[in-house]
């Protein structure tokens, strides 16, 4: 990534394509805050963003859990830059809401969409549900297995549970 940033800083004429490339690269390599900083520098330089760089910014926010920043950017796409959100923007939004478990908010966003191609976005949410449930099972199964082992050990040592009594 350092080499790409070096090439970028040495370029004589920066345009939306060069900015989009560097912001996307930073986003995809886990440098979300740097990607957001570069986006701000692009904006300060007066370069109008395109809908591709908006996906990179929304993805960057998703990867690091910057939900408020993601919403802010999503709303500013049209308000400040006149870029209409498309299906892939909604998919990014649903993903960054679904990853940390904001499923109701993600569902509301999908329902509010005017697009007829909602299937892709529903699939994104289902994927996040699957990851959430997998993580939950990964947490619960060892705990349940641990309890079973403790009970087996207690039985082996002839340690039983005391019966409850009321007074």
From TrEMBL:
UniProt KW keywords: Membrane, Repeat, Transmembrane, Transmembrane helix
Database matches in PROSITE patterns: PPR
Protein's GO biological process: RNA modification
PPR repeat ranges, renumbered to this chain: 15-49
GO molecular function, one term: RNA binding
Domain of life, per lineage: Eukaryota
InterPro entries: PPR_At4g14850-like_plant, PPR_rpt, TPR-like_helical_dom_sf
Membrane spanning residue stretches: 129-148
NCBIfam families: PPR
Name assigned to this protein: Pentatricopeptide repeat-containing protein
Source species: Rhododendron simsii (Sims's rhododendron)
């Amino acid at each position: 990534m350092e080499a790409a940033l070096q090439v970028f800083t040495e370029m004589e004429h920066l345009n939306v394509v060069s900015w989009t490339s560097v912001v996307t690269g930073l986003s995809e390599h886990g440098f979300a805050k740097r990607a957001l900083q570069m986006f701000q520098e692009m904006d300060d330089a007066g370069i109008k963003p395109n809908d591709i760089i908006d996906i990179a910014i929304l993805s960057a926010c998703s990867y690091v859990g910057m939900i408020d920043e993601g919403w802010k950017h999503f709303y500013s796409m049209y308000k400040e830059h006149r870029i209409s959100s498309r299906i892939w923007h909604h998919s990014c939004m649903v993903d960054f809401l679904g990853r940390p478990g904001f499923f109701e908010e993600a569902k509301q966003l999908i329902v509010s969409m005017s697009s007829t191609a909602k299937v892709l976005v529903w699939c994104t949410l289902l994927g996040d549900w699957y990851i959430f449930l997998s993580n939950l099972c990964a947490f619960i199964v060892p705990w349940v297995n641990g309890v079973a082992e403790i009970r087996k050990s207690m039985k082996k040592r002839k340690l039983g549970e005391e019966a409850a009594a009321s007074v």
